[in-house]
Specification:
The protein is α+β, with helices and mostly antiparallel strands. It is 37% helix and 23% strand.
Amino acid sequence: MTNPDTIALAAQAEIEGIEAILVGGNAVNLHAYSRTTFDVDLLVRETDAERWLSFFKGRGYAISRRTDNFIRLRFEANWAGALPVDLMLVNERTYRVIESESRRAEVGGDVTLAIPSPLHLIAMKLHALHNPQRVEKGIDLLNVKHLIRTAKIDVSRFSLPCSLSSVRI
């Protein structure tokens, strides 16, 4: 079996009626930023989790990690041969709110996927900072800074905790 293009698979799933929103580093890159990413992150409804699992298992992927709101899939024949897929599971309401402000972006060739608004991506990146290892890496903070700049977000309209009010962007 040849190694799959994981993002193209996500687009194929959409054609087959399984919805997702491309999030994480790939979505940040589609907001005019260039950073390296080593996986494909998809925001999906928790009620669609089994459909996504069936879709990827049918294409040679296997679960390598699972929690209540997260599933990591890897290409079973060659873990290094294709980007892993991270499914971020959310409820219907959360999915619809993020989807309502998403836009389509070209991910290669004629393939497009939905990506969240800069504000929703920022919210996800800030949520990811609950993990101390992610804070240590600092990538999420750089992504937030970039998204604020490229989207021309006026941060003066937001109330920040006093501990963050002196942070320069």
